[in-house]
Predict the structure of UPF0056 membrane protein.
Amino acid sequence: MKFNLSQILSTSMVLFAIIDILGAIPVVIQLRRKAGHIESEKATIVATSLMIIFLFAGETMLKIIGLDVQSFAIAGSLVIFCIAMEMVLGLTLFHEDAPETVSIVPLAFPLIAGAGTMTTLLSLKTQYDTQNIIIGILINMTFVYFVLKNTERLEKLFGKSGLNVLRKAFGVILLAIAIKLFRSNTGL
């Protein structure tokens, strides 16, 4: 087992951009208002578990349905591209209904551990060592937990315009990630 600080930082930054918990603060605030309360611990544990399970079993699940990791990564790069375009241009391509149990659905899945995150995990697995990806997941989920616990304070700190700037900045980072994933899995 070899830990590599460079890989840990890279995976952490990629996951930070794709999870985009700072950009999701307005959504989290809206969900909290609808539900009255969000169980931050529960949402964090469920999202972390989903990501780690998919990191190990995702490739096998793909093989069962006849897909390879590169095809999934290319499809995922397109999903990430669409998510990034939403962030940068202020579009809404994906619509989610908020059920009564918002801590699990839609918060833990698909907001935190959604299709873009799962695709990114499989793509990262083709480039980095698994233990470094797990550390990147844990670093990000610690940050996610902190944000979920402090959404109201962060809303006041950043203000609406500050949150908008963060969302657009991470959108541009996601665009670059999507292009990199597409290029590395197509050989272009």
Notes: The chain has one domain: 5-93+103-186. The helical segments are 5-19, 25-35, 40-64, 69-89, 103-112, 115-125, 130-149, 151-186. The radius of gyration is 16 Å. The chain is about 80% helix and 0% strand.
